[in-house]
């Protein structure tokens, strides 16, 4: 049974639509992005910020993966930050989804 988000989110379920094989593939994609394109990971209770390497390939790969993550986990808010000195992919969650984000952040930190 999945939870549902509250106010302002349109009652979106806190659940991933991927099956077991799709989830395993997605985890591998996130780990590959972390290894090749992420220079820093900042975790807060309701968000994770992945600072990206300063090249176009990192930005394109992160944006593509972020968009696909939003498709299977619609409760994630996914954005790209373009600053004067860095670029980042940010994933945040509404109230009630912090546990799901904590699991996601743990997966990002872990090594296969």
Overview of the molecule:
The chain contains three helices and six strands. The protein has 112 residues and is an alpha+beta fold. It has a single domain (17-109), classed as Gyrase A, domain 2 (2-Layer Sandwich), CATH 3.30.1360. Strand 3 and strand 4 (47-52) form a beta hairpin. Helix 1 (20-37) runs antiparallel to helix 2 (56-72). The longest helix has 18 residues, at 20-37. The chain starts with a strand and ends with a helix.
Helix content: 40-55%
Rg (CA only) = 14 Å
Structural class by sheet pairing and helices: alpha+beta
**Widest sheet: strand ordering:** 3-4-6-5
Name given to the CATH architecture:
2-Layer Sandwich
Q: How would you sum up the major sheet?
A: 4 strands, antiparallel
Count of domains: 1
Terminal CA distance: 28 Å
The fold-level CATH name is Gyrase A, domain 2
* CATH class wording: Alpha Beta
Mean pLDDT reading: 91
Order of helices and strands: EEHEEHEEH
Low-confidence stretches: 4-9
Number of strands: 6
Note the total helix count.
Answer: 3
**Morphology:** globular
**How much strand content do the residues show?**
25-35%
Describe this protein with a few key phrases.
112 residues; alpha+beta; Gyrase A, domain 2; four-stranded antiparallel beta sheet; two-stranded antiparallel sheet; 6 strands; 42% helix; globular
Short description:
With 112 residues, the chain is of the alpha+beta class.
What's the layout of helices and strands?
Elements: E1 3-4, E2 13-14, H1 20-37, E3 38-44, E4 47-52, H2 56-72, E5 77-82, E6 87-92, H3 98-109
Antiparallel strand pairs: 1-2, 3-4, 4-6, 5-6
């Amino acid at each position: 049974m999945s939870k549902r988000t509250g106010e302002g989110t349109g009652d979106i379920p806190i659940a991933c639509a991927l099956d077991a094989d799709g989830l395993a593939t997605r985890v591998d994609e996130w780990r590959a992005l972390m290894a090749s394109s992420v220079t820093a990971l900042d975790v807060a209770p309701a968000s994770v910020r992945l600072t990206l390497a300063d090249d176009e390939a990192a930005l394109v790969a992160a944006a593509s993966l972020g968009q696909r993550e939003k498709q299977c986990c619609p409760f994630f808010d996914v954005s790209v930050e373009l600053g004067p000195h860095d670029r980042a992919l940010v994933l945040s969650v509404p109230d009630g989804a912090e546990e799901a984000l904590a699991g996601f952040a743990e997966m990002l930190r872990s090594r296969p």
